[in-house]
């Protein structure tokens, strides 16, 4: 194809730049795609001849790149057309892929959540739910769930969760943990909290606990008073027992938890008091 003819077919001026040529070629591609959808209503002579357009494009491009304009007069193949599409729509393509990955991730999370919900729905209700929260260091508390079943053969299932919550923010990780702590307080509803002294003092101001009632008087008499935490709540007429420190109890032997205190408290709205008292008496009886 002659160079002059190529300019006419592409409808570009002779001083066209390579970028302008690329843009014009993409315009022809879009027009051609649009016509394909409406080809039944458009006469054949009005249809864009992409083979001819492509030859014209290559002729002009060769000339701009210092190559004999007539060296390549074959229509552009699919690979070349794809390269041109990606060149012009690289950002749209990139963001499209990112969006697809985000949507896929969200869908995967929803499906995974539904599967987990279905699995939990088939399990028996937990006989006790425990949340350890404080400046504790441990890798895995799940063995405690199994060991509790050994201690209480009548129980079918226990749930033990752990959240690291420092007493103060010493670094960015601590700051993130303290922010997460607020979410945990709002969303988790265990039967008992096992906490350090800092969090006991913090949470008692939030009226997070109910008094511990029903422990054996003989058992309480044998406990060092430093392990018993009393205070007078907003609705109490006198001081009540709200926490028992069971640090050193062999009931924790199945897990390695580095902690100063392990104060057991009962969540304010827990109704599972019988099992909680059973757990407490067992833990107290196994104090070193």
What does this structure look like?
The chain folds into two domains: 3-88; 126-285, 3-Layer(aba) Sandwich (D-Maltodextrin-Binding Protein, domain 2), CATH 3.40.190. Helix content is 48%, strand content 12%. It contains ten helices and seven strands. Strands 1, 2, 3, 4, 5, 6 and 7 form a seven-stranded mixed beta sheet that branches. Helix 1 packs across helix 3 (50-64) and helix 2 (18-37) packs antiparallel against helix 3 (50-64).
Sum up the overall morphology in one term.
Answer: rod-shaped
Average pLDDT level: 87
- Decide which structural class fits the backbone: alpha/beta
**pLDDT < 50 runs, ≥5 residues:** none
What's the CATH topology label of the largest domain? Answer: D-Maltodextrin-Binding Protein, domain 2
Tell me the layout of helices and strands.
Blueprint: H1 3-10, H2 18-37, H3 50-64, H4 78-88, H5 90-121, E1 128-134, H6 142-151, E2 158-164, H7 172-187, E3 192-195, H8 197-204, E4 209-210, H9 217-221, E5 228-231, E6 240-245, E7 263-267, H10 273-285
Parallel strand pairs: 1-2, 1-3
Antiparallel strand pairs: 3-7, 4-7, 5-6, 6-7
Transmembrane segments: 91-111
Keywords: Membrane, Transmembrane, Transmembrane helix
């Amino acid at each position: 194809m002659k160079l002059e003819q190529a300019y006419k077919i592409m409808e570009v001026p002779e001083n066209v730049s390579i970028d302008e040529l690329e843009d014009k070629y993409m315009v022809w591609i879009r027009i051609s795609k649009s016509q394909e959808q409406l080809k039944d209503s458009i006469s054949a002579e009005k249809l864009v001849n992409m083979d001819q357009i492509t030859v014209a494009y290559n002729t002009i491009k060769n000339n701009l790149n210092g190559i004999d304009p007539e060296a390549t007069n074959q229509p552009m193949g699919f690979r070349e057309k794809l390269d041109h599409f990606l060149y012009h729509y690289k950002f749209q393509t990139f963001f499209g892929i990112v969006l697809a990955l985000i949507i896929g991730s969200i869908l995967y999370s929803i499906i995974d959540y539904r599967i987990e919900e279905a699995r939990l729905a088939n399990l028996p209700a937990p006989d006790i739910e425990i949340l350890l929260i404080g400046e504790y260091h441990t890798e895995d508390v799940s063995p405690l769930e199994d060991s509790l079943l050994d201690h209480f053969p009548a129980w079918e299932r226990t749930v033990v969760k752990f959240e690291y919550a420092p007493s103060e923010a010493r670094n960015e990780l601590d700051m993130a943990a303290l922010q997460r702590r607020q979410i945990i307080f709002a969303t988790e509803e265990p039967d008992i909290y096992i906490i350090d002294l800092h969090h006991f003092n913090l949470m008692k101001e939030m009226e997070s606990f109910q008094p511990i009632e029903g422990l054996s008087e003989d058992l309480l008499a044998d406990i060092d008073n430093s392990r018993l935490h009393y205070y007078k709540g907003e609705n109490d007429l006198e001081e009540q027992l709200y926490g028992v420190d069971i640090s050193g109890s062999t009931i924790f032997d199945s897990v390695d938890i580095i902690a100063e205190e392990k104060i057991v408290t009962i969540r304010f709205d827990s109704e599972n008091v019988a099992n909680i008292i059973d757990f407490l008496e067992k833990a107290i009886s196994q104090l070193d």
